[in-house]
Every structure is written in C-alpha cells, then in structure tokens.
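About this split. The held-out portion is used to measure sequence recovery: a designer receives only the structure tokens and must propose an amino acid at every position. Recovery is the fraction of positions where the proposal matches the reference. Here is one held-out target exactly as it appears in the evaluation file.
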C-alpha cells in the first residue's frame, strides 16, 4: 500500500465516522509511520555529524561498526562500539553510545535503549545537538513502551517554537497523549504542527489526519 492510498483510505474511514474502527486498524501503522520518518531524519543528522567529524582510525572504526549494525550483526556491532566508546576521542565516544542504544532498541530491549539515550542526554560533556537527539530518541521509544509523562519528561523542552526538532517532539507528545486517551492534549500538539508553516510537509499531513480523527471522536479544538 502506498502512502497516498493509505491516507485516502484513512480519510474515507473518518468521513464514515468510524473512529474506533480506524484506531483498531491503523493505530499501530500511524505510530509506526511517524516514528520511522522521524528516526530516518535523526539517523541522517547523526550520520552527517559523524561524517564531518570523521578522521583517522576512529572514523574508520566507527564506520565499520555502523556496517556491522546495518548487516544485522548486533552483538559484534555492540562490541565494536564499546571499544570506540572506551578508546576513541572527541565526539566518537558519544556517537558510539548513541548507535549502541539504537542497536539495543533494534534488538527489542527498549528499556536498555532508553536508559542509554538518557545517559547521553544527561552527559554534560556531550554536544548539545547530540543530547537533544538522544532525548528525542528516548521519547520516541517511550511512545510505545512508556506513559505520556515519560515522553514529556524527555521531549517537552524540544517542543518550543524555535527548536528545530519541535515537529518531531510535538508528534511524539501527540501520539503518546492519544495513546493514553488524552484527546484534548493530543489535539493541542497536532494543531501546533499543522499551524507551523516551517514544519515538514509530511509531518503536517499526519497532524491534519490526526486532527480529523480526534474531531470525529468528539474532541474539539
């Protein structure tokens, strides 16, 4: 199913006022789609950061560890990343910790991954941009495995009007609020995205879809 056909089918369900059926059928898909797109963006930012920092043996070792992770060799990747964390200098130890946290998430250990991202976010020696990415990544994981309060604790500071990560942070907050039955809170976050001219087009599209879904279930702006 293409993205266009997916959204057309969802909109048809809304017009038929089948909000419950829509949630039953598409709730997991909507969360998965939003998280996948946000993670792809975060991955690109982290990769670009690494590419700018790349130098000598540390850069080569990090690149090899990334390839191990891409190949699905998770245990080998974790071992290689641990070596970089313990022996490399500059930004590489933090980058290695973040990639190791992602590998843990891919292995299904969300709790360990969240703890690892939280540790980076609280590391005073880490670059501010990487700490913010770690907060957002932990919050996204907690959309599925934690509470709204858990998500807000990580990403609320990223949802401000001038923060470049605000759309992703607001989407995480909105999805978590929706999952927890906080319809009015969810509406607020999705409307912030929809009304933000600087928000990515796909994020605004998803936000408008969620607004229609919330309205069809009786939630007002």
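Reference sequence for scoring:
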């Amino acid at each position: 199913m293409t993205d266009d056909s997916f959204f057309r089918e969802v909109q048809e369900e809304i017009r038929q006022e089948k909000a419950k059926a829509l949630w039953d059928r598409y709730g997991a898909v909507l969360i998965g789609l939003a998280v996948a797109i946000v993670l792809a963006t975060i991955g690109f930012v982290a990769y670009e950061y690494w590419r700018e920092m790349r130098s000598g043996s540390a850069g080569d070792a990090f690149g090899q560890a990334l390839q191990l992770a891409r190949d699905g060799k998770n245990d080998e990747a974790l071992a290689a990343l641990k070596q970089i964390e313990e022996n490399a200098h500059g930004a590489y130890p933090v980058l290695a910790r973040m990639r190791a946290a992602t590998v843990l998430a891919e292995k299904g250990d969300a709790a360990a991954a969240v703890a690892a991202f939280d540790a980076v976010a609280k590391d005073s020696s880490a670059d501010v941009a990487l700490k913010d990415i770690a907060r957002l990544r932990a919050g996204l994981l907690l959309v599925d495995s934690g509470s709204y309060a858990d998500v807000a604790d990580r990403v609320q500071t990223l949802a401000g009007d001038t923060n470049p990560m605000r759309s992703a942070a607001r989407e995480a907050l909105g999805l978590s609020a929706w999952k927890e039955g906080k319809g009015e809170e969810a509406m607020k976050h999705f409307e912030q995205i929809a009304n933000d001219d600087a928000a990515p087009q796909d994020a605004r599209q998803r936000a408008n879809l969620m607004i229609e879904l919330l309205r069809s279930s009786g939630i007002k702006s």
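Annotator remark: The chain has a mean pLDDT of 82.
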